[in-house]
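Okay, any thoughts on this one?
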Amino acid sequence: MSVELLIGNETGTKGYLPAVEEGVEWTTERKNTPGKLVFKVLQEDGLDFSEGSAVRMKENGDEIFFGFVFKQQRSKEELLTVTAYDQLRYLKNKDTIVYEEKTADQFLRMIASDYALNIGTLENTNYVIASRVEENTSLFEMIQNALDLTLQNTGEMFVFYDDFGKLTLKHLSSMAVGSPGAYLMVDEETGENFEYTSSIDDNTYNRIKLTYDNDNTGFREVYIAQDSGNINKWGILQYFDTLKKGENGQAKADALLKLYNKKTRNLKLNGVLGDNRVRAGSMIVVNLDLGDIRLKNFMLVESCRHTYREGEHWMDLTLRGGEFVG
């Protein structure tokens, strides 16, 4: 394999390049899950690392993964199966946090400072959250809640991930793999098999109803946005929620209708030719005949598993397309 895998010792004063068995797996999920690296090494004399040791992986010079050992499993064949996670693993910590007048990226900076996490590029999410109380909640959920509020009020999606040891936040438009005229494309020739689902059963709404109890006037304000055409086709699929002080009710209702008033389309691809640039949150072009539609468009990678073997690199992808629902 062309994989270079470096493991630090317990104190971080030494680094080892162990004999790695083929079949290294790197997995990422778009929401609330740390990046994971699973690999097997020979238990050789002098190889000294433990839980908490740093792990760095490169492939053909590409920076793939930086994280820390969390689990070791030994076998009588003298093989050691190691599971490492990137620093998003520490966002599983729970806390109670109250904040005011912060954008999602500003809140993320605050979390990173409090928990000594390394920051990379954090793009401005623009939407200011007036106030928020997060009680006995994981840091992952807190950050996702801030990103969901941004999406629901503006229709703008941001992708949060660890980029080789640095927390990174980018707008969806920055996540396309490749460049204009040379975007990465998956078609019948580059994928071994696929499974496609279209549905109005999950996260599809054609009527949005939001209410706000106005303490100043003593009245309940009601904001509605709906699509009569899709109501005639599908029946009423209603999304209901209450508003918090400072939210623009009609603007939020309109944004939610734009976001949810459509079918969800999910696509699973197995045995796709590997590309190190692809991770959960990436946007790739898919050119496939899916039966009800001929798809040639960008799709969002919800989960991605890379497998590296001797002279081979494959990906298994779960994609969401056309309609991006948080």
User: Anything to note?
Assistant: The chain has a mean pLDDT of 90. The first strand starts at residue 3 and ends at 8.
